Amino acid sequence: MRAFVGGIVTETNTLSPIPTGADDWEVVRDLDAAAPGSALRAFAEEAAARGDELVFGLNAFAMPAGVTTWAAYRGLRDELLAGVRAALPLEAVFLPLHGAMVAYGSDGGWIDDVEGDLIAEVRAIVGPDAVIGVHIDLHCHLTQAMLDGSDALVIYKEYPHTDMADRARDLYRLVADTVAGRIRPTMALFDCRMMGIYPTDPQPMRGFVDAMLAAERGPVAAGGDGVLSLSLGHGFPWGDVPDSGARFLAVTDGDPALAAATAEAWGRRFHALRREVAVKPLPLDAALDRALAVLDGGRAPVVIADQADNAGGGAPSDATFALRRILERGIEGAAVAMMWDPIARHQAKAAGAGARLTLRLGGKMGPASGDPLDLEVTVMDLIDGLIQRWPQTDGAVDSPAGDVAHLRVHGFVGAPAGPDVDVIVTTRRGQVLGLEPFTAFGITPQTHRVLVVKSIQHFHAAFAPIAAEVVYMAAPGAVAPIMQQIPLVRADLDKYPWVEEPLTPGGGGVV
């Protein structure tokens, strides 16, 4: 099989104050630059194992932020499509995308469904006979246009996303079997009429995901029931587009009626869990109160997720609300990672390790970032090019964390000193994925009682094993984790939690 792999991946927070421009993209153009353990490596390993010829095209990634500029999207799209044309003839195309990318069009309006647009462009080039497989994030706006242009679509099942490579292998097998004529995928969607954040480690989501995996029994010809793949698109609540929200996808072998019935059955099964599966974060002070209660009970450390300032959802990661309250309340043994402030990091490096100075930290990107804090700090250590390790089912993926500084904050300028708080500051906007932003500086569960991570859920795989308790916090910020607090305008809100019963027993959610 001769196949092409290439994609454009970002998650667009249409409410973010940070535009996504041409300079924000990291582009990989050959396999050697693909991270070990990544989906791209999984595609390549599958191809090598089967003796297939895999042509590697443009693969671009940008940290989640605001709407992508037309110039940036046009440049990346044109290069990707040129690579597809140059690789012809092709039997298959693999498109690792995100599913929640929004870009400006040439007319200045938004392209709400960039992935649908890209898939259609690729289809126009390769023709109706080539098999197109799409690999996307579960925080997607799952649209009919994506299905109409592709032959098979597979979504990550796990949140945190520890199964990206596993799902890439699933997709490869579906595409290869389609090319070989062993299967004929048919797909259907069901709108679950829900919006929320659904971690897959706790019950009942753990059981739901495990049941999905068990129900993928394969083609009838191979002894299965015709269900090839099941996927739940959780949706991305901070992308204010009409197709946002949770949708269920079923892929069957040559049976559209089975696909529709299966998508509906599983979509209604998920909908029935709507009051149980979503994260229920605590307001800032209530989260800190909970952490102190756990500590008073003799258990440590407590990991607090500062969900609203998660760069992985498009937030700046320079919000000061949590740090301010920790200092004001005099909480001992606390550490915070990672605050995006290249200016503060530059000042820390200029001063050098061991220097004590006054420094203005954070609060630079607008109201959702809070006010900057004027602090008395000591520069404890500096690391250029810190790498954090993001746990995956088959190892870990290296994730650059930028040039970082460990600041020990003694208190506000002009105010009496309180208990020190350690803050990790970075030049690269990104969420905490692994332990390294703390452990690289000697911050461990033995040295600190409270670890605050700027992340919604991807921290969980690394931190849950060392935490006495994980507390989800809804401080102010650009990625409000309480759905009703997101200032949505274009999204369809005829969904839970805005509507208690959006699916009537006989009502239709089929897309």
Q: What's the pLDDT, averaged over the residues?
A: 96
The number of distinct helices, counting runs of at least 4 residues, comes to: 13
- By DSSP, the count of extended strands is 20
Major sheet attributes: 9 strands, mixed
Structural class by helix and strand composition: alpha/beta
Portion in strands = 25-35%
Ranges where pLDDT stays below 50 over 5 or more residues in a row are none
In the sheet with the most strands, the strands line up as 12-20-13-19-14-18-17-16-15
Shape: globular
**Percentage of residues assigned to helices:** 25-40%
Distance between the amino and carboxyl termini: 33 Å
Radius of gyration: 23 Å
Strand and helix layout:
Layout: E1 2-9, E2 25-28, H1 39-50, E3 53-62, H2 70-87, E4 92-96, E5 103-104, E6 110-111, H3 114-126, E7 131-136, H4 144-149, E8 152-155, H5 164-179, E9 185-191, H6 205-215, E10 227-233, E11 247-253, H7 256-271, H8 274-277, E12 282-283, H9 284-296, E13 302-306, H10 321-329, E14 334-340, H11 342-351, E15 356-361, E16 373-392, E17 395-412, E18 421-426, H12 436-439, E19 450-453, H13 460-463, E20 469-474
Parallel strand pairs: 1-3, 1-4, 4-7, 7-8, 12-20, 13-19, 13-20, 14-18, 14-19
Antiparallel strand pairs: 2-3, 5-6, 9-11, 10-11, 15-16, 16-17, 17-18
